[in-house]
Amino acid sequence: MKESPAVRRATLKIRTKLGIAFATVILSVVALSFISIQRVRGISANLAEVNEINSVKQRYAINFRGSVHDRAISLRDVVLDGQLQEVDKEVADIERLTANYDKSAGPLDEMMTKSAYVTEAERQILDSIKTTERTTLPLISEVVRLRRAGKDAEARSMLIEQARPQFVAWLRQINLFIDLQEAKNKEIGAQTTALASTFTLFTSVLLVCALVLGGLAAWWAMNSLRPLRVLTARMGVLAGGDLSVEVPSTESTDEVGDIARAVAVFKANGLERIRVEREAKEQQEALDAELKARESKYRAEQQRVMDTMAASLSKLAAGDLTVRADTDVAESYQPLMRDFNVAVDRLATQLQQVRSAAEQVASAGSEITAGSDALARGASEQAAGLEAVGARVQLVASMATQSAENAAEAQRLSAEARRH
Q1: 3-state secondary structure string, the chain?
Q2: Taking the model in full, what pTM does it have?
Q3: How many other CB atoms are there within 10 angstroms of residue 68's CB atom?
Q4: pLDDT tens-digit map of 12-44
Q5: For the segment 42-72, what is each residue's pLDDT rounded down to a tens digit?
Q6: What is the Cα–Cα distance from 361 to 345, expressed in whole angstroms?
Q7: Inter-axis angle of helices 255-317 and 226-239, to 10 degrees?
Q8: 55-80 and 120-148 are packed helices; what angle lies between their axes, rounded to 10 degrees?
Q9: Of residues 327 and 184, which shows the higher confidence score?
Q10: Who contacts 309 (Cβ-Cβ below 8 Å, separation ≥6)?
Q11: What is the mean pLDDT of the chain?
């Protein structure tokens, strides 16, 4: 069965609709730009002719006029000046003005031969200017020659009767050339103004048409996006956490339908995620309860061990060496209890050894005391004997001293006797 146009429009993708709308706007802009470019080129060509050709030729002609006018004045001063020095200054000025004239004449001749914007009238006027120039220049030289030769009357006569009419004709022809350029510029200006006026009107009409076409295309494209706004609102509700909302336009064949189906998948994934999170939460709560029970049991066992150790240490501090820690505890605490009991056993053994050693020390102390008394008595007797011996020694020493004195006296007496 053949689809109707309405059905085909309904099945167009949004990108196709946007493409058509965009192409319509682009074509309108291209058409407007093309026509605008053509018109602007025409205006630009007219302005270029005015600014780059006619105005340049007119400027050269104005330079001609200034040079010719000033040379006429200088030539008059050559005739009227009384000093030859002043004549030389005027002649130098005439030469300078002639050089300036030639600077403009060269480029103007080149433009007249190469430019496509040269008319026959311009060529005729320029030819007449050159003819008058060729006639006037020898007259200028002749007037200067006569003035330097002192022929003032002849020089003045030639100036008034021959040179002056040529200067007037020369300036008139230059002015004709200037006026011709001005007239051409005015004509081009009128053409440019008319072209700009028609261009403005045509551009305005074309712009209105482009705006209308663009507006219609935009309305068509935006109307295609209306279901997307509804879908965006539903997506906002889904993003807020309400997964009970229905997803519209899932049967559409354009991009909106693609997005709607993707959102439906997002909704299904969200529901699945909630289910998984709920199961994970339940498992976490069961795990937390189990961990809490294990922690409570661990703390209770720890407290029982601490109480047992505290009671055993209290009895040990009170001197009860028969105390023993209960080893009926959790496996992790049993090494602690066994180490405590071993330490108490070792402490009891060491204390018994210390007690036995103390008793032996006490017995040995009694024997040492009796021996010390006997030794004291013997020492007293030995001291008395030593005193007697000391007295005898002193007596023997005294007697030995006296004997020595007596021997010395006997030797003295024997010596005196031998001298007598």
Answers
A1: CCCCHHHHHHCCCHHHHHHHHHHHHHHHHHHHHHHHHHHHHHHHHHHHHHHHHHHHHHHHHHHHHHHHHHHHHHHHHHHHCCCHHHHHHHHHHHHHHHHHHHHHHHHHHHHHHHCCCCCHHHHHHHHHHHHHHHHHHHHHHHHHHHHHCCCHHHHHHHHHHHHHHHHHHHHHHHHHHHHHHHHHHHHHHHHHHHHHHHHHHHHHHHHHHHHHHHHHHHHHHHHHCHHHHHHHHHHHHHHCCCCCCCCCCCCCCCHHHHHHHHHHHHHHHHHHHHHHHHHHHHHHHHHHHHHHHHHHHHHHHHHHHHHHHHHHHHHHHCCCCCCCCCCCCCCCCHHHHHHHHHHHHHHHHHHHHHHHHHHHHHHHHHHHHHHHHHHHHHHHHHHHHHHHHHHHHHHHHHHHHHHHHHHHHHHHHHHHHHHC
A2: 0.44
A3: 24
A4: 666 676 677 677 778 777 776 777 677 667 666
A5: 666 666 666 667 888 889 889 989 999 999 9
A6: 25
A7: 10
A8: 20
A9: 184
A10: 325, 336, 340
A11: 75
CA distance 168 to 186: 27
Token output for 122: 């311009």
Tell me, rounded to whole angstroms, the distance of Cα 208 from its chain centroid: 45
Total number of residues shown for the chain: 420
- The more confident residue out of 101 and 286 is 101
Exposure b/e, 249-269, CB count within 10 A at least 16 = b: bbebebbbbebbeebbeebee
- pLDDT tens per residue, range 138-152: 999 999 999 888 888
